[in-house]
Structure formats: structure tokens, C-alpha cells
Specification:
Largest sheet of chain B: 5 strands, antiparallel
Helix content of chain B: 25-40%
Distance between the termini of chain B: 68 Å
Mean pLDDT of chain B: 88
Structural class of chain A: alpha+beta
Radius of gyration of chain A: 15 Å
Shape of chain A: globular
Oligomer: heterodimer
Strand content of chain A: 25-35%
Shape of chain B: elongated
Order of helices and strands of chain A: EEEHHEEEEEEHHHE
Strand order of the largest sheet of chain A: 1-10-9-6-7
Strand content of chain B: 15-25%
Number of strands of chain B: 10
Low-confidence stretches of chain B: 38-45
Chain lengths: ~180, ~290
């Protein structure tokens, strides 16, 4: 089982223009679009991307990447992942990252297939979100929190200290792998 | 019986060569295996351990009383027992702040040496200290606790309230423990409502503690796994009298590469030079980790 918590905050902007789409079947498929920083991105692109993710459990990640890249502008940074309690398959382009806390160490996940175990914690977010959170802070908060929501609350306190949530759009997801 | 004279000489020499090759391989393989085990036998877990250099300051500021207390374990048996360092800050506005903070560090000193990996058990013991304070003072007195336990190249920490455990690594300072105060709750609620968070800091109760030593059921914050430490890391355990007036950026700039005493001295001067007319008690323990020059 994947326990997750999502942050989508408009910051000091007029509207929230990033996008996070999820499909929760046997595996969790998530697409995070850093669209607030892309002038070419339109509402129609978002609707198409959402339609692709919804009910996408039977579609392979490679096929999904192909389809998504056709639907969104080539300038738009994104992160697509599929995760269950054993593995994570990840594909990202540009300034959207996923960091994993595994056995007390923090690593930025590269594109590809990675194995997971009970208790692993993953934080996905845009560059704007990670700007004010050091890896040491991310690690300490992950290891002292007892749920994905509490972890996100801790991270939000750090962002708040730096910007009071008055900057750019902020998008992030915290995940904890829980063995059933 | 085999008559070796009847075996063609080329087959005989090939067999002898093969046998020799087998023997040489066997000896070589044995040597590799033996060397491997000898190498691992020789590894001393403490051989590469970082050595702590410790300094502290403990000042009253502009207050009439010293309500901070601190404890640093003896370093005689550092390689085996590690080091425990803690700061407890008696809660202002409540009575007996000094008594309670002293009691907290006294109890921690009695816990030394701690079982490094038994973090849950240690947290339970800390919770028991809190309960005993609660039973004595009935929530009319309290204190914070920020504590680190370092063994070899790893650290765990325990925190209740709003004192700080900081890690200075490669010129970057990070407060590792979250503050258990009302402003943290307000921030979480405002973020969930999609609002900016500046208003949270202006709340008159923003700094009120939501958890402290002396609370009936205290939540002890601690990492589930030890944190790896590296050569050159500095750990600072301090009361909020330090972090209220000195930012993390300033600490990074004034953290010395020379010694813990130098960093402690810089930090103390930084606080003093702020000349805050309401300066709270300020206490810090600085632990600089490095490899000794042999």
C-alpha cells in the first residue's frame, strides 16, 4: 500500500496552474506537471493529460509517456511515476524531482525502475517546492514523522519560514511505502 | 598396475602440467580467501570513527534567573558509549522553570549510557520523565528538551518543545527537529486552506508550546533511523534564546572550521552583539566532528 499526501498551493499567485493527476488502482500512477512555469501550456493540455492518467492502470508506462508527450508542450517539465509497495517506475523531464529516503539516506531518483521496501519514503515536487528545503531537512522530517500528512506539514513549516507561501505555485506529494 | 613407460610421453607431460596448474590455482585461491577473511577480521568498527570536539555556553541574557540547563556526558568512554548532550529550557510564564529543566537534564544524565539503537525505548523513558514532572507539578511547570546521542559516525536526536538540534554541513545549517508550538499548527491549517501563512506568526499565542516536558502525554520527536555523520559536521544543541536572534544563515557563516570552542565563542558573541533588551536565557552545546590528526 502507498500512503500519500498531496500539496497543491497557489502561493502568492492568482491561481494554481501546476497540475497533479492520479490514478489509484493496484498501482498508483501519478503525473505532476510543472505547468505554472510554462507559457505554452493550456487548459486543454491539462484536460487531455488528466484523461490519459484516469484509468491508465492497464497502459504500460512507456506507452503513457509517448501519449503524454504528444498531449503536452515539449517545453513543459513533468514527472510521471507508477508505484506499488515493491517497485517504483519513474520518468521525469526537467525541474520536477522525486527524492527517496531509504535506510536513513536520501537519494534523488533517476529515470527508471527502482525496488522499494516497507518504510521507504518518497517526496515528489517541483523545483519551486524544493527550493527552500535542504536534503538534510527533508531527511530529518521524513524520519521524525509518522504519516505522509505529518511529513508534508513539517515541510510546509520550512517553506513557510522562507516564503510564507507568497511565492510561486507549490506542488508536492509525500509517499510512504507500507507493506499490507 | 599402470606402467608409466607405456603412456605416451606427451600425455604424461600434459597430465603433470595440468596437475601443477591445479595445485597453483588451489594455493592462489586459498591465499585470496584467507586474505579476504584476515582483512575483515582486522576491521575495527571504531577505527574510522569521528572524534567529537565539544564546547558550550550558558548565559542568563537579560533575565533575572537562569532557567536553561544542560548536560554533556563524559567522553572517557566515547568509543563505546558515545556522547549524549542535551539542553532543557524552563518554560517562561510558568513557575519552577529552573527546577524542571534541572530535573530533566538530571534524569537524562542518569540514563547515560543510552542504548543507541533502542530509540523507541529511549523515547518512552523520556516520556516517563515528562509524566513524572506532570504528576509533581500538575502542568503548572514545564521545560523543553533537545538532545543528541552520537555514537561513532551516527546520530539520533530527541526533542520535546521548541529547543533546537542543528546540523551544520558544508556551510549549510539545518534545524533538524520541528518545533512543537502553536504556530506550526496554524501554518498547517492555513496551507490546507490554500492561504498564505504570514498571519500565523502574528498570532499572540503563536509561540505557545503544544508539547513540553511536564505535559501529561508528551510526543517525543525522534528519527526512526540514525543519521549518518561526516567529517567536518557540526551539531549544535541550543535553546530558543539563540535561534530567536541568530538566523541559520548567520550560523553557517560563523561556524568555525577550527574548533568547537571557536564556533561557540562566535555564536555567543553574535547573540550578545544583538543587544536584545529582552534577551532570553541562551545556551548552546557545539559538537564538531572530525578525524584526529595522528
Amino acid at each position: 500500500m502507498i500512503e500519500y499526501y498531496t500539496l497543491s498551493h497557489k502561493g502568492g499567485q492568482e491561481e494554481y496552474r501546476d497540475n497533479i493527476f492520479m490514478d489509484y488502482a493496484k498501482q498508483l500512477t501519478m503525473l505532476m506537471l510543472f505547468s505554472s512555469k510554462d507559457e505554452n501550456f493550456t487548459l486543454a493540455n491539462g484536460i487531455s493529460a488528466n484523461a490519459l492518467i484516469t484509468g491508465s492502470a492497464s497502459v504500460s508506462l512507456e506507452k503513457l509517456i509517448e501519449k503524454i508527450e504528444k498531449e503536452i508542450p515539449s517545453t513543459c517539465n513533468y514527472l510521471l511515476l507508477r508505484i506499488d509497495d515493491k517497485h517504483i517506475d519513474i520518468h521525469r523531464r526537467g525541474s520536477v524531482y522525486a527524492k527517496i529516503i531509504k535506510r536513513g539516506e536520501i537519494i534523488t531518483l533517476s529515470n527508471g525502475f527502482h525496488s522499494l521496501e516497507d518504510g521507504d519514503q518518497i517526496c515528489c515536487g517541483t523545483k519551486e517546492f524544493f527550493k527552500n528545503i535542504t536534503d538534510n531537512a527533508l531527511l530529518a522530517d521524513a524520519m521524525t514523522s509518522i504519516s505522509s500528512e505529518e511529513w508534508m506539514d513539517y515541510l510546509c513549516c520550512r517553506v513557510s519560514e522562507a516564503t510564507h507561501f507568497e511565492g510561486e505555485n507549490l506542488s508536492a506529494v509525500t509517499m510512504i511505502v507500507r507493506e499490507d | 598396475m599402470i606402467d608409466f613407460a607405456e603412456i605416451p610421453s606427451n600425455i604424461l607431460s600434459a597430465s603433470i602440467l595440468g596437475g601443477l596448474f591445479f595445485l597453483v590455482s588451489l594455493v592462489f585461491f586459498g591465499y585470496v580467501i584467507y586474505g579476504h577473511f584476515i582483512k575483515y577480521k582486522k576491521v575495527d568498527l571504531n577505527y574510522d570513527a569521528l572524534t567529537p570536539d565539544v564546547a558550550y555556553f550558558h548565559e542568563k541574557g537579560k533575565r533575572d534567573y537562569q532557567e536553561d540547563s544542560l548536560y554533556i556526558s563524559e567522553l572517557d568512554d566515547y568509543k563505546k558509549s558515545g556522547i549524549v548532550a542535551c539542553v532543557s529550557d524552563g518554560m517562561g510564564g510558568l513557575d519552577f522553570g529552573d527546577e524542571v529543566s534541572e530535573y530533566v537534564v538530571d534524569c537524562i544524565s542518569k540514563m547515560f549510557p543510552l542504548s543507541f539503537f533502542a530509540v523507541d525505548e529511549n523515547a518512552t523513558n523520556i516520556r516517563r520523565i515528562s509524566e513524572s514532572i506532570s504528576n509533581t507539578y500538575h502542568q503548572k511547570a514545564g521545560a523543553t528538551l533537545a538532545m543528541v546521542n552520537i555514537l561513532n559516525n551516527y546520530m539520533t536526536f530527541y526533542s520535546v518543545g521548541d529547543s533546537n538540534v542543528m546540523l551544520v554541513r558544508k556551510g549549510e545549517t539545518t534545524i533538524l527537529n520541528q518545533k512543537q508550538n502553536y504556530v506550526s499548527l496554524l501554518i498547517a491549517n492555513l496551507v490546507k486552506a490554500g492561504k498564505p501563512t504570514l498571519a500565523a506568526y502574528g498570532n499572540p499565542r503563536a509561540r505557545a508550546l503544544t508539547d513540553f516536558m511536564g505535559n501529561t502525554v508528551s510526543r517525543v520527536l525522534y528519527p526512526s533511523k540514525p543519521i549518518r555523520l561526516y567529517d567536518g559536521d557540526t551539531i549544535i544543541v541550543c535553546s530558543d534564546g539563540v535561534t530567536d536572534v541568530v538566523t541559520e544563515k548567520y550560523i553557517s557563516q560563523h561556524c568555525s572550521n577550527v574548533s568547537a570552542a571557536n564556533t561557540a565563542s562566535n555564536l555567543k558573541l553574535m547573540v550578545r552583539n544583538r543587544k536584545n533588551p529582552k534577551q532570553d536565557n541562551y545556551t548552546a552545546i557545539v559538537i564538531k566532528l572530525g578525524r584526529p590528526i595522528v
